[in-house]
Amino acid sequence: MSRRLHTIVALVENRPGVLNKIASKWRQRGFNIESLTVGHSEVPGLSRMTFTVDGAAHDIEQVTKQLYKVIEVVKITDVTEHETVARELALIKVAATKDNRSAIIEIVDLFRAKVVDVAADAVVVEATGTEDKIDAIVGMLTPYGLKELVRTGRVAMVRGAGITVTAPGANGAGQRYRSAGEGKPRVGSLI
Amino acid sequence: MPKLNGAEIVMECLRKEGVDLIFGYPGGANLPMYDALHKYPDIRHVLVRHEQGAAHAADAYARVSGKPGVVWATSGPGATNLVTGIANAWMDSVPLVCITGAVVSWLIGRDGFQEADITGITIPITKHNTLVLDVEDIAPAIAEAFQIATTGRPGPVLVDIPRDVQQQLAEFEYPDKVDLPGYQPTVVGHPQQVKKAAQLIAEAERPLILAGHGVVISRAADELREVAEKAQIPVITTLLGLGGFPGSHELNQGMPGMHGMYWNNIAIQECDLLIGVGMRFDDRVTGSLKHFAPNAKIVHIDIDPAEIGKNVKTMVPIVGDVRNVLQQLIPHLQPARHDAWRARLAELRRDHPSIAIPETSRLLPQYVIKKIYELSGPKAYYATGVGQHQMWAAQHFWSDNPYSFVTSGGLGTMGFEVPAAIGVQFARPHDTVWAICGDGGFQMTMEELALCTEYELPVKFAIINNNYLGMVRQWQDAFYAGNKQSVRMFQPDFVKLAEAMGITGLRVSDKAQVDASIEAALQHPGAVLIDFQVEDAEDCYPMMPPGVSLSDTIDQPKVEQPEYAR
């Protein structure tokens, strides 16, 4: 079966240890997570995760079924076959001199990226787009001297009015413990 | 409302859940819970000798009683000693609620004395686990633990509570409803799928039911029997499915797989419809998946959607509780006969007796087990360890007593037998309980023998003592050129050991003494240990070598003069 990069979106309860439990399921089955982003969702107490994982469709399906067994996972969907908007954000620190700075800015403009910090000998570029676009701008900037690169990994959303991954009646799901949400220090956190 | 401390809240929760038995071991981090025990005389605590014993005893207790097993342990080594027992319950889908004490919350993550990250350690072997850091969270966490452990596909849940949290005060309020947005098991089969399954059954000429632990867990023996009888479908039971279908039933085919009946392994290859009921197509059942059941359409009934399509390709999957699904199926079934197919199966059985026991003056291990079954009556319960004795115990188990065979299937945990039999005896205080033990596994957990004296448990222990780690020895002979490495060991005097533990010990090395010793054990009001010194190098057949297909099962060599044949 052919392997390809899959995009998987999960809605999970924002509780300590959840990321560990989810990562454990992938690890047990020998998958390498290519990218992972986590952040709050539109539902209080629930976070949305986007994974990209390389693998055959059948294997990915088996892992997502296993992931459903994590009690804190409310919903998980492989959106690879869906029409999605998928983006990642990159911050790129490039060596820049007074002589080549304008050439760098020209490249940045071509990619509709932004210079968000300027120093005497470097600029920080913020770029948003698909992985291909990020790869391309990084490729163009590398000859100037790539000092540091950070990429968020993919976030994805299904196109149209439908909600990518929604929780059935999950309002305030994260509040199921009486002490939750009081800003108490926790041992460990989701990320 | 008066405030209780966290430990008392734990006890109140257990009372709400109807728990009357805890297997546990105290230590620094769960002392507040032990301090609260005496205020709850309706909840009995059994002090084991090693935490692994607590987990296994609770596991076996749960399997037989149908109630969740409750285990207590302290932090660090107490909790890590549970790991094997938790993994065993995980692999065999047994509901356990393990409540561990953790080091005080301000020491967590600082390598405190007796600290172990038990929630981290047990992630892959629990259905759910949680560290409770606020006394207010204890009741909801325990309510969730019971809900999760006992519903859907059951499994072990661990709740870790730091000592200081056990001492904090709060009002006790038990949630009457647990709402877990990410946990909604499907318990009723999809009606359309049920109809499709019935259609396949109606069309089949050579159908087989492969019944697993799900039948036992959901207590679906009656429904299974009705399905089998109505459509006249022969029933094969997996190792953990034993006891899910009456042994004496004319449709009962016994066990398949690596040491299953030869006739079953061939039948699976020949059948045109295979109905997996509450089972997971484990490699010990299927052999090489590539060649498994090549002529069969497969219907797979299981409560766990992750089991569907995991190992075999299924034509009709039905996700749901086995008992519900079978009940749904019954009205759609048409009476059938399958005479030709049943004649073929009878022929296979006649030509391949598989588990016949030869007539000999030597003391054969399988003979001892057979005799125990024969003499213990129809209401006895059995717990086994892992290895040759377990396979013989499974092969010769044809009891009609439902849910009476307790064994470590998925994990294959040697040493399960002694604490498991103790757990079974707690669940069935008035019935005969046998521990069928290997001499190796027995020595792993024999410290728990003392419980029989302390709690007046009349467990009967039969050590099938071949003075070998027999299954390993068999593999070394079969696949490692007879290079018998590390399979013989010094043995204690098991009779003296029994006596030192306060129970009666007997030694049997002569076939003529077998009946009398078993009768004596059955008549003795207390616990008895019999050291059966059996033939040392008897191999367990049939045997499917690892990696091959069911068709390549090696049957037992022909027995010319069987003393017993099925």
Task: Please summarize what this structure is.
Chain A has 191 residues and is of the alpha+beta class.
Describe this entry's structure for a reader.
The complex is a heterodimer of chains A (191) and B (566). Chain A is α+β, with helices and mostly antiparallel strands. Chain A has 2 domains: 3-82 and 164-175, Alpha-Beta Plaits; 87-151, ACT-like. Chain A, domain 2 (Alpha-Beta Plaits), CATH 3.30.70.1150. Helices cover 25% and strands 37% of the residues of chain A. Chain A has helices at 18-28, 57-68, 101-110, 131-145, and strands spanning 3-13, 33-40, 46-56, 73-78, 84-95, 114-118, 122-129, 146-151, 155-158. In chain A, the strands form 2 sheets. In chain A, strands 5, 6, 7, 8 and 9 form a 5-stranded antiparallel sheet that branches. In chain A, strands 2-3-1-4 form a 4-stranded antiparallel sheet. In chain A, a hairpin with a 5-residue loop joins strand 2 (33-40) and strand 3. Chain A is elongated, with a radius of gyration of 20 Å. Mean pLDDT of chain A is 86; it is low at 169-191. Chain B is globular and about 70 Å long. Chain B is α/β, with parallel strands linked by helices and 566 residues long. Helix content of chain B is 35%, strand content 17%. Chain B has 3 domains: 3-171, Rossmann fold; 191-351, TPP-binding domain (Rossmann fold, 3-Layer(aba) Sandwich); 357-540, Rossmann fold (3-Layer(aba) Sandwich). The longest helix of chain B is centred in the first third of the chain and has 15 residues, at 51-65. Chain B has a 6-stranded parallel sheet with strand order 3-2-4-5-7-6, sandwiched between helices. Chain B has a 6-stranded parallel sheet with strand order 11-10-9-12-13-14, sandwiched between helices. In chain B, helix 1 (6-16) packs parallel to helix 7, helix 3 packs across helix 18 and helix 11 runs parallel beside helix 14. The model of chain B has no long low-confidence stretch (mean pLDDT 97). Chain A binds chain B through residues 12-13, 16-17, 20-21, 24, 28, 58, 61-62, 65-66, 68-75, 167-170, 173, 176-179, 184, 186-187, and chain B through 105, 108-109, 119-120, 123-124, 127-131, 133-134, 136-137, 140-141, 144, 148, 179-183, 304-306, 308-310.
